[in-house]
Amino acid sequence: MPDHRKLGRELDLFDTDPLIGAGLPYWLPDGATVRHTLEEYIRDAERRAGYRHVYSPVLGKRELYELSGHWSHYSDDMFPPMELGAQPGGEQVVLRPSLCPHHAVIYRSRAHSYRELPLRMAELGGMYRSELSGVLGGLTRVRAIQLNDAHIFCTLDQVADEAGAALEMIRRAYQALGIAPARYRLSLPGPGGKYVAAPELWRRSTALLTDVLDRSGLPYEAVEGEAAFYGPKIDVQVADGAGRESTLSTVQVDFHQPERFDLHYIGPDGARHRPVMVHRSIIGSVERAVAHLIEVHGGAFPAWLAPTQLVVLPISEAELPQAEALVRRCADLGLRAELAGPERGSLGARIRAARLVPYQAVVGAREAADGRVALRLRDGRRPAPQAADDTLARIAALIAAHSTDLWDEA
Fold first, then answer.
1. pLDDT tens digits, residue range 66-93?
2. Torsions phi, psi of 259, nearest 5?
3. Which among 103, 220, 376, 390 is least buried, having the fewest CB atoms inside 10 angstroms?
4. Which residues on adjacent β-strands are paired with residue 354?
């Protein structure tokens, strides 16, 4: 399996610079296209599943994280507070290490009825971790993270269904991305860790997640020492070519923060009740997800995710007008197409240069004359020449469906 750090640079997806800083990669145009497309897929999947999207600031007062518990349990991994104003002892703000305190504050800013629950709140937001230089690497361990995060505020009776639905969203996303989990892990507290001291809440949370996994039929392992400080979680693990595991997706049940932030809803009895907070991330951090995709696919991303989806190859200068028109039709259909003309070398050289592009449309004299396309697929197949409009429509349909198939033979 390729190393995403080497391949990502070779393919001009991302890079780093000492002047910007370690653990702070920047995204080049093709990498930005992959990232943007992945983010739009997740936002659309969340909208379809009933999530409402919010934006929250990447800064928060120190008191916010003291209230949430992050400061007492997690301050070693946080960037130091910034003093606002010239006087010492003034207001301090912190780059957030997590989005959940912000979402808890957003929830409590309005009154809620039981009829609104489950209330599903999602954000693709930035967060920051003060990682030591020695553990940083490529996109898998960074200091500035774009997290696909969501929090579901629900009743106790709704937790199992919401957690199960999150696992199903993860399954569908992995199918579209062409990746597979290495294992499912029930992450529990371990001896000596910094955990919230609430044995009864831990017992209830663990029982709920165990029931969700058992009902799902998924094989899983219970592992001590891997829980969040406020509760247990289901971690979906992926592995690189060397067998090293990392967590990509999570589902967590949290009774702690609803108490800390005094969250409530009005029940059918007219009284105040405490919601449960389900934390859920489909692809985790965008950086880690893209790193894994680069390595799994060797840069040959599924067609819907590829930076360039179709390259148009006129055989000679004479076919350039028809080739340019084909690129424009691709743009009208929302396809990312590029023209690779004879100035880039022989047809064979251009085909080899575009080996990672899902579709190659060769335009010779015959195709230019009758409006057809001789298509070459990345996997070596060559469908029979078809009318250009029909070919593009079939490609667009596969991409819109987020299919990992390059061609529908039907």
1. 999 889 888 888 899 988 876 666 789 9
2. -70, -45
3. 390
4. none
